[in-house]
Amino acid sequence: MSGTPRYIWMEGELRPAAEGVVPFVNAGLHYGFSVFEGIRCYETQNGPAVFRLDEHVERLLDSALVVGFRDLPYTKDQICKGIHQLIAANGFTSCYIRPLIYLDGAMGMVVDAGKPRLIIAVWEWKAYLGEQAKERGIRANVSSFTRLHPNIMMTKAKVSGNYVGSILAKTESQRLGFDEAVMLDPTGYVAECDEVFVCGTAAEVVGLREIDFRTIGSGKTGPVTRELQRGFDELTSGRHPRSAQWFSPVPAFDQATVKA
Fold first, then answer.
1. How far from chain centre, in Å, is Cα 173?
2. CB proximity list for 118: less than 8 A, separation 6 or greater
3. Residue 126, exposed/middle/buried by CB under 10 A (0-12, 13-18, 19+)?
């Protein structure tokens, strides 16, 4: 099965992926005024299921409220249903899910002058940091870029514009020969440890074996990280006691949901 999606969800319905375009004149594109989520669907022993769908969609809507969106066009239930429809229509057993609410219009930089619009896309994205990252761990450096101060930007919301610094940091790291960047907060702290791991929807759970040319632990994924990976794999395959609680099964595809 090809990993290229056939359908996208926008304006409340499934459409061919080629129609997934937005107008050039909008604050989401020009000013980064949009909010998004990263969600995973896993192939479990009971079929494809979305991991903690309710919580992710709630955070998406919370982010929208934090930055000042009003009169959102869709409810939580409608978004969850759209995500299910989109996965089923594309025939994916596991995939990455990206819902995004952007501000259409509002080139005068006032939220209320524009209109919020929601688009959802899915694609197959298995090894975000490469096939060997889980076993070997990755190399990172402390970035010269600092995470945004909360008085500069709404850092508790997943705002697209916040990620410009992350792109610059990761690009810098990869050009220096590392896999990832470690970004410090404005006071210069991250954490203290003997063993280091990073986690996220795309990367899942990955150990760091080196930071700034300094070997971490034994130079490979450590025992704490391995145990977390084991538990996460058990959970996302549907074999953990909490799997049923945290997963949202994808229903069978209904052809009637596709725009003619």
1. 20
2. 10, 72, 73, 74, 79, 99, 100, 101
3. exposed
For 193-250, what is each residue's pLDDT tens digit? 588 898 999 889 999 999 998 888 888 899 999 999 999 999 999 999 999 999 999 9
At residue 56, φ and ψ (nearest 5 deg) are: -65, -45
Q: What is the pLDDT of residues 146-202, one digit of tens each?
A: 988 888 888 889 999 999 999 999 999 999 999 999 998 888 887 555 888 989 998
98: tokens are 């990206």
Taking CB atoms within 8 Å and a gap of at least 24, the contacts of 143-146 are 143/169, 143/172, 143/173, 143/181, 143/182, 143/183, 143/184, 144/169, 144/172, 145/169, 145/172, 145/181, 145/183, 146/183, 146/184, 146/185, 146/186
Q: Which residue, chain included where needed, has tokens 């959802």? A: 120
- DSSP code string of 168-204: HHHHHHHHTT-SEEE---TTS-----SS-EEEETTTE
Which of 30, 28, 29, 11 has the alpha carbon at shortest distance from 20?
11
Q: In the structure, what pLDDT confidence band is assigned to residue 260 with cuts at 50, 70 and 90?
A: low
Best CA proximity match to 117, nearest among 54, 33, 229: 33
* Whether the predicted model's global pTM rises above the 0.85 cut: no
Q: Which of 81, 156, 158, 259 is catalytic?
A: 158
How does strand 247-249 pair with strand 204-211?
A: unpaired
- Tell me the C-alpha to C-alpha distance, in Å, between residue 68 and each of 38, 116, 146: 21, 10, 25
* Chain Cα centroid distance, residue 2: 21
Q: Which run of H or of E encompasses 228? A: helix 223-236
81 is catalytic: no
